[in-house]
Design brief:
This is TetR/AcrR family transcriptional regulator. This protein folds into two domains: 41 residues, Homeodomain-like (Arc Repressor Mutant, subunit A), CATH 1.10.10.60; 157 residues. It has twelve helices and no strands.
Length: 222
């Protein structure tokens, strides 16, 4: 029953867009009345969140392929992962907003775990080292997990991780917000290129920054 409603929501997103998702439409497609939906979902944002995750599969698989490659250095894997995140987020901004930014009124990490418990096949083949990234809703925590790989390789100072993480996320969030709100003239390719230009420069100089007087790290999950 839970799957029926998620699949119905995904169909609406695919055919009409997230902005046109309604409880009545979901119920009609699933073949149940609207009241039944609330026996399984406390609010419509959860349905949109679960359905949007189904559109994240290609992104997840592409990131997994990057981390399976033995011919890429750790830093290049990090940069490639960021590039994929940018490409997919600008190609499908409403989905990425629903998954990473929208207010869910609940604990997103619990929703995410529940989704993959229902659709375990979607994380088959994901390298163990990046499963904590895929199973993490909080953007800050996702970024930190990947940066820790670079610390272990001696490519970044541990004391710089939080600041570098915040810098890169803020760059993406700034561009993504203007893009989502149609305040930018960039197309997805140009937006990605701009962000990666800045992120590559940050990573090139990562160990030369001094954040001794840095304030306590903020949570950038919303």
């Amino acid at each position: 029953m839970w799957k029926y409603f998620v699949e119905a929501t995904a169909q609406i997103i695919r055919e009409e867009g997230i902005e046109n998702v309604t409880i009545r439409k979901i119920a009609d497609i699933a073949g149940y009345n609207s009241a039944t939906i609330y026996n399984y979902f406390s609010e419509i944002s959860h349905l949109v969140f679960f359905a949007s995750l189904k559109f994240m599969k290609q992104y997840t698989e592409e990131v997994a392929q990057v981390y399976k490659r033995n011919d890429l250095a750790p830093m290049e894997k990090y940069l490639r992962a960021w590039e994929l995140f940018c490409q997919h987020s600008f190609q499908n901004p409403s989905v990425f907003h629903a998954v990473f930014i929208a207010d869910l009124g609940s604990h997103p990490e619990d929703l995410l775990k529940h989704y993959y418990s229902v659709y375990p096949s979607e994380i088959i083949g994901i390298p163990e080292e990046i499963k904590p990234v895929i199973l993490e809703h909080n953007i800050s925590k996702r970024g930190r997990v990947i940066l820790e790989f670079l610390v272990k390789e001696g490519l970044m100072k541990e004391e710089n991780v939080d600041a570098i993480n915040e810098l890169t996320i803020m760059i993406w969030q700034g561009m993504f917000t203007t893009f989502l709100n149609n305040r930018s003239t960039y197309d997805p390719e140009e937006a990605t290129r701009k962000i990666m230009l800045y992120i590559r420069e940050i990573m090139r100089n990562a160990n030369h920054f001094s954040f001794a007087d840095e304030p306590q790290s903020a949570d950038l999950s919303s």
